[in-house]
Amino acid sequence: MGSSNSTQYALLTDGRLYAWGLGTHGQLGNGRSRNAFRRPVRLPFSNVSTLAGASNHAVYDADGTVYACGQNLHGTLGDGSTRSSTRPVTVAGLDGAEVSRLVASFANAGALLKNGEYYNWGFNGNGQLGNGHPGRSAGVPVRVRLPFPVTEVAQGGSYWNNGQTLALLSDGSLWSWGDNWAHQLGTSAKGMRPSPVRIHPPAGVSYQRLASGSATSYAVTATGDVYAWGTGRVGQVGNGQTGTATRPVLVASGAAAISSTANNVVISLAAAT
């Protein structure tokens, strides 16, 4: 299952993909732009292994090829153009690459390869691409240079000049880049980071899963403890307050999975033994 700004997706175990909800920019990829699809419609993909969506665009890996559809703000579709498309277009530069995970946010998307390389594309107003060149968007995938292979990645952001990425590496270190107006990168000071910077969890804590919303970041430990930091103006930090958390705050325990959209987060609790 997945969601993208009022659009819902359901991936079946046989690789078929269905969607419903908002489709005004063609983000369903079925060749149609419509305000509301009230019932699930099958999308023109087969053998889908992973997908992601945000705002008015979506990205899929089907039969080993990465496709995108929907609104194409600053190259969000990754095909080298800025033309929106109601039909799937092929994301450039990833032919033959084995993808383990796709991520998406307001005007960005990214692909984590099975070899640990991470590529992202789209808007770069506040360093969202992590390539050290803020203000220079990319219409095709750009590799983010990191010292070790990436094992987990989360991309967030909900409007212009608001977007960030967290990446967990094979050596256990955590890195972040992009916008940082609410300390969502986990650094001690505000200010965008156009290149990856290493950040540190609380003493004795090791993260295993990541998520990120508009300007709030989340991490889950191997034992299911959930930490959050960044803006909490509508309670999205989860600590019972509406202020900014400048450092990771323990907000829940027993989590098996986590998912975040713009201003909310859901955790799935581990089954009792």
Give an overview of the whole structure.
- The chain is mostly beta strands and 273 residues long.
- It contains no helices and 22 strands.
- The strands form 6 sheets. Strands 1-2-3-4 form a 4-stranded antiparallel β-sheet, with no helix packed on it. The protein has a 4-stranded antiparallel β-sheet with strand order 5-6-7-8, with no helix packed on it. It has a 4-stranded antiparallel β-sheet with strand order 9-10-11-12, with no helix packed on it.
- The radius of gyration is 17 Å and the shape is globular.
Strand order of the largest sheet: 1-2-3-4
Mean pLDDT: 93
**Class from helix and strand fractions:** mainly beta
End-to-end CA span: 25 Å
